[in-house]
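Hi R.,

Quick one: here's the YcaO-like family protein sequence you asked about.
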Amino acid sequence: MRADGEPLRRWLSNLLRHRHRFGITRVGSLTRLDRVGVPVVQVVRPLALSNAVSQGKGVDMVSAAVSGIMETIETWAAERIPEAASHVSKHSALSADWMKLFSPWADSVVHSGWEALDLPMIDGWDLVSNQRVPVPLALVDTIYTYPSPHPSVFPRVTTGLGAGASLVGAIVQGALEVLERHALTRAYRTPYFYERFQIDLSTIKDGPVAALLQSLTQSGLLAAAWLANAPDTPPVYRCHVMEAEWPLELAPMPAEGSACRFTSDEALLAALLEACQARSAVIAGAREDMTRRIYPSVYERERLAEWRDQIRLPGSLPYEAERQTPPSPSTMLKAVVEAAVRAGARAVIVVPLYADDELGIYVVRVLAPPLHLWPSSRHG
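And here's the predicted structure, written out as tokens:
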């Protein structure tokens, strides 16, 4: 994203003037639905082929609005891949290396014999080998209508979508999300993760994170954070925000957020903001992917009380604000590629989806096989 201040305001103004180009009919604030005061913006795109409602969050309303609009443009761009950009690759034309690269993501149980299918492909560029690589279109587009335009071979998730004011910025954002989802999948498979990797937030005394934690406490909410990343990779935090007491509740269940950034302060702040955004989204109840199970008629009060006690624990890990030195803007791209390789990626493939120099919008999809795509996916 662009720098804070007037450039960001000008960019937002430009995005709002051209919002109808992307099918956006409403950009509205959800902030006052909750008592926390974290700026949360809802963006509506009624003719979407994926989620029609997106959210954005930030430390101020301008950054929250930009965040929401750009998230909406990500899926808009991935829904509109030109037919000329895709092609069908015959099985016989795919090398053994290609099969080895993407087979960990394929669901051979659901679709046995997928290796013999002629799958729609789109070309991407591997930043590791500096070579063109065909990518299954199902891993790139966001046409989530039913019936699906793709056979049930590869997972249909948004992991790796990135948008920014520059091509490099979009790639970096998408790659950081890839690293985040991979780290979360590994963390959830770690025995006693929530007991072993909880951070002691009481040691954070100043800065934006401390200010947000204080606001949450004053609003009668609890917050907890867990460190999820592997050593030598950018920090990844998982956060929960939850009501401190019952029955004075707007949203009884803990709201979840996670983020990967180059520094601990940035990652933790982004994860906490996302948890607050998730809480506002539940309160608003406008997202079509929030089904009845999000709003049970009866809550398991005993389990909620147990988790509230867990969140209140100080945590066994000290918070290390300077655990990772942030790279310079000119080396961020190299840094995320190297981090993905350290995490186990055999390729870091970029598929450009949209570019508008006038508006300063660039959208890409980043894939790093065989890193895990989504914590709840069988393919992960």
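The chain is about 30% helix and 20% strand.

Cheers,
M.
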